[in-house]
Amino acid sequence: MTREELLAKYSEPIPVLDHGFIQLIDVMGDDAAVLQAARTSTNAESKGPHADRRLLRYLFKHRHATPFEAANIKVLVRLPIFVERQWVRHRASWLNEVSARYTTLPEEYYIPETERVQRQSRRNKQGSADPLPVDQANHIRSNMDAVSRDAFKHYGWVNEQGVAKELARINLPVSTYTQKVWGTSLRMLLHFLGLRQDPHAQWEIRQYANVLADILEDWTPWTAEAFLDYQLEAKTFSRMEMLILREMVEDFDAEYIEYIKNRADEEGMTPREKREFLTALRLA
Length: 284
Ligand SMILES: Cc1cc2nc3c(=O)[nH]c(=O)nc-3n(C[C@H](O)[C@H](O)[C@H](O)COP(=O)(O)OP(=O)(O)OC[C@H]3O[C@@H](n4cnc5c(N)ncnc54)[C@H](O)[C@@H]3O)c2cc1C
Known about the structure:
single chain
């Protein structure tokens, strides 16, 4: 997809949560920019799309990361303050956020859907478990709504007293929506997605990450594919785990090793990847 096609496809804000959105503002560079940056090192020329895709996958797999900084993205995001508080931790990016010292914030706050009103997880102190019964969840939602509405009523009243906006805002809840323009490199977008599409990340920020992942697929399809294959759906094994894995496969006979090689071909692994895989398992 060209830059123009991409901007046309994402010209409208994509809704996220109840009042949020992501809108693509601009991109600079794409998969081709990554390859061009990488080829600067070797002064080499493209040998066609097949070789290009292979090179990009090689760069990603072997963490030759700087070429992925040659492409950049800029989005407009509307999100609850508690989500922004997690997002803002990603320092390798830039942003400009609406200032509630200058402007009065509209009465927009996040109320989770009924099924999102989940119990505290016992296993994961940061996580949510099963949903509460519907009646109880809806009762909690109305209560959340009433508290937020009251906070905004108070906000309006303090503003009417002539108090400075920077002070009038201090009792607004973290569910209040804020807005920012956010930009980062492709490299750091992938870093963000790796952390925020992960099931350990809070459900709300994951919804934003998923929209960015959709844009990524259209913007840099080869990078998105490599990211999925080598990061999002990949696992790293520790030294101990590798020892056990090697023990598990050490008695594989030649026929079974041949079967593994065929499976690797079926999965689209390159000869180099196949070699690296078998070497890691000490089968080559
Ligand atoms: C599931 C989850 C739970 C979390 N829980 C908590 C929590 O309980 N409390 C909390 O405070 N945070 C928490 N965080 C935030 C987390 O610790 C990171 O701040 C956040 O994920 C941003 O990651 P980052 O620093 O790698 O990204 P960025 O800030 O974008 O940095 C990108 C990379 O640049 C490099 N870099 C940037 N700045 C420096 C620096 N100063 N020195 C060295 N290298 C640097 C690092 O390699 C870094 O990985 C959580 C994050 C996740 C995903």
